[in-house]
Amino acid sequence: MARPLVVLVGAEIEENLSIRYLAAVLEAGGFTGMIIRFNESMESDAVVRDICAAGPLVVGISIPFQARARELLGLASHLRLAGYRGHISVGGHFATFEYAGILQDYWAVDSVVRHEGEHTFAEVCKAVRDGIAVGGIPGTIARDNGEVTVAPKRALGPLDDLPFPQRPATPNIVLGISCAPIMASRGCYANCTFCCIHAYTDNAAGPRYRKRSPENIVREMLQEYRERGVRLFVFHDDNFLVPSVAKNLQRCSELAALLARQELDGIGLVMKCRPQEVDRQLFESLQSMGVIRVYVGIETNSDEGVVSLNRGISPSQNRRSLEILRGLGIYCSFNVLIFDPEATLRGIQQNLEFMEQFADVPFNFCRAEVYAGTPLKQMLTAQGRLLGDYLAWGYEMRDPRVELLFRIVSTAFAQRNFKPDGLANLNMGIRFDNEVLSHFHSRARDRIRDEQLVALSREIGLDSVAHFRRALQFVAETDQPESDAVKRFTVQLAGSLARSELRFLPRIKSARREMESCVPREHAGLSGAL
Amino acid sequence: MGIKSKAKKAAAAGVTVATSGLSSCNDNGVVDPPPPPLECSDVDQGQSLEATAERVDRVLSVTVRHALGADAYWFDVRVTNPQGAVIVSVVTSPNGRPDDVLVTLLLQSDTTSTGSFTVEGTLAGYSNQHCAVLRTFTFTVDGQNVVVSQRKGHSLPLVARERAWIVMVGGDQREVELEARTEYRDPHGVSWSVTGGSLVINPNQKARWLLPEEAGLYQVQVVVDYGQNGLAVDTMAFEVLG
């Protein structure tokens, strides 16, 4: 008897662990889990066509953030218009919190799977297969015959109990090296007001932070190493570390011993952490294990930002973390939430000074967005400042000059900061490529290339800071902003940024080509193009 | 934002006077002039909406109406983000007037004195115009008196955070055909510029770019102007190989 088919829809720029874990649990439960990629709106018709052609019993749509919620929920409506009559379930962070609006406005959706969905979604699929009502399954909000049933939350289980995620036959390749995303923990101990991870785990029925055992992690790494030739493991943990050097060293030591015992050598690791967790001894150990890139959650270095975003971190800890990593020669990058509801022109200047000081470290900057369930949303609601609706929350900054600055900067920097092929991403990417090349394909680091790329990053960083300061000066000198003058300035700023970009792009392309030429012949042809 | 037509607004005002003096229900041989067509630039994402309210105990009945007297109806409408009250019902055309929405709210308590809700949807005209609407209304309750008004944000430029992006829709080794895309539905202007070669601007937000002969990286930039709602900029680089 054929296994019932379940389609899982989500973005898959790289292997999407969230839907791939779901697929693995479905497979273990007697279903066939088919993943259909939906990366951008223009793919909608093809996705609907593919789903209808497959004719699944259930369609699960992953909606992690509000940014694409309208598009992903629209897919459910399009499926109904195209004649799909099976069960449609949505899940992810966004759906977990905004289920009331979803079930009110999107009649195409039959159920919402809240929080971590592996076991809940599998039970939904079994109920649909067996003709049993979905309402009442722990972790669901379901609509049956027009009635909405809110079930209790499902208790979070141990991460070691999950099967390893379903993987495609061919992994992603970076400069000839096979890589795979992986996670060693879920959740985060910190309390940042803007953070969806904090909100998500705090609202769930279970601990806010859970770890896999080192044995379980290494077993998956070994499988990937042997079966798909993976050498670069990208840890997607919300936070790879905890606020204790001793505990981090202990876990790191256990992982290192297990990796050595399994002869998992010649691997590279990528991870994320908070600034106060960066410790010299710990990162020396991590470096010797193969860490080649660290994403450091700086987020803000302004006096009011660390308070209003509840970072629990001081500006000196931010600086110290980057200085330690710089001293060890570990490549890192960071992001700054330079705009938040309480941002001031003075605080923005402080953040710009920080970005200038660490311009050699690739960075990006943006506004703190309002995610469902977060303390930031609660605060803005209580203050009567929350704008929009559940599909697109927003706010205006308290200081009108900062609000105007945000509007100018977000318009002028749209290409540089927010597009996959924008300069901010290319800057981070070329530095990462250099680490991959140095770690996997070179006997010794090419110091000249290292210095050239660090200098390029610094020039790009300083260029962004300089352009930002032009906008800051314009706003500071403008008492009564007049629409046409603001638009003229914004277009000029965007034009200047574009001209700068044209200076940097040939250098990035040239470096990339040179690196590709250094990849040994047996790996050549496996590199993604710039 | 398109150009606002003062002539049409004057016509709309005239119609209001005429209909108030000559009821169209009387079969007296007088034919009312038709209402003016709907203009999205007048709707201005809901700037044209007005609201009135009545209170009975904890129930607020708010009527939201397109105030310019144009020939319009609600293609779709949602009321979201209630603060200080819960939404009981949303009914379009409650008294036969197609541009009305009756929003019934239940105040959170007897002492609730203020709150808000957002109206989002599409106001449509009978000549197939579709105007996006997104407005937040606040209400203030004082005894049986209720005042409803649109929430005013900072009156700053660049209000919309609309995106625009360049898409290559065709081309070959020597020239490319580009299109500026945006989800903004109201009238807007599109202007192109390139760092080399030449441009032929076509209607429908398209441009044909004849690439330069000389090898190198070149850039095209588009600026999409949404009038009072701001603008969006996008660039795309092309490499001409030697």
Descriptive key words:
heterodimer; A: 530 residues; alpha/beta; 18 strands; B: 242 residues; mainly beta; 4-stranded antiparallel β-sheet; 2 helices; 8% helix; elongated
Question: What is the fold's blueprint, element by element?
Answer:
The complex is a heterodimer of chains A (530) and B (242).
Chain A lengths: L4 E6 L6 H12 L3 E6 L6 H11 L3 E5 L6 H13 L5 E5 L1 H5 L1 H7 L5 E3 L4 H13 L9 E5 L2 E4 L21 E3 L2 E6 L2 E3 L8 H8 L5 E3 L2 H14 L4 E4 L9 H17 L6 E6 L6 H10 L1 E9 L3 H6 L6 H14 L2 E9 L5 H13 L5 E5 L7 H8 L4 E3 L2 E3 L5 H13 L1 H5 L4 H19 L5 H30 L6 H36 L12
Parallel strand pairs in A: 1-2, 1-3, 3-4, 4-5, 9-12, 12-13, 13-14, 14-15, 15-16
Antiparallel strand pairs in A: 5-6, 6-7, 8-9, 10-11, 17-18
Chain B lengths: L5 H16 L18 H4 L5 E8 L2 E8 L5 E12 L1 E8 L7 E8 L6 E12 L4 E13 L2 E6 L13 E8 L3 E8 L6 E6 L3 E5 L3 E5 L5 E10 L5 E10 L2
Antiparallel strand pairs in B: 1-2, 2-5, 3-6, 4-5, 6-7, 7-8, 9-10, 10-13, 11-14, 12-13, 14-15
Give an overview of the whole structure:
- The complex is a heterodimer of chains A (530) and B (242).
- Chain A has 530 residues and is α/β, with parallel strands linked by helices.
- Chain A is 48% helix and 17% strand.
- Chain A contains 19 helices and 18 strands.
- In chain A, the strands form 4 sheets. Chain A has a 7-stranded mixed sheet, sandwiched between helices.
- Chain B is mostly beta strands.
- Mean pLDDT of chain B is 78; it is low at 1-30.
- Chain A binds chain B through residues 101, 105, 381, 384, 386-390, 396, 400, 403-404, 407-408, 410-412, 414-415, 481-483, 486-487, 490-491, 494-495, 498-499, 501-502, 505-506, 509, and chain B through 78, 80-81, 83, 116, 118, 120, 134, 136, 153-154, 156-159, 161, 163, 193, 195, 216-219, 221, 223, 225, 228, 230-235, 237, 239.
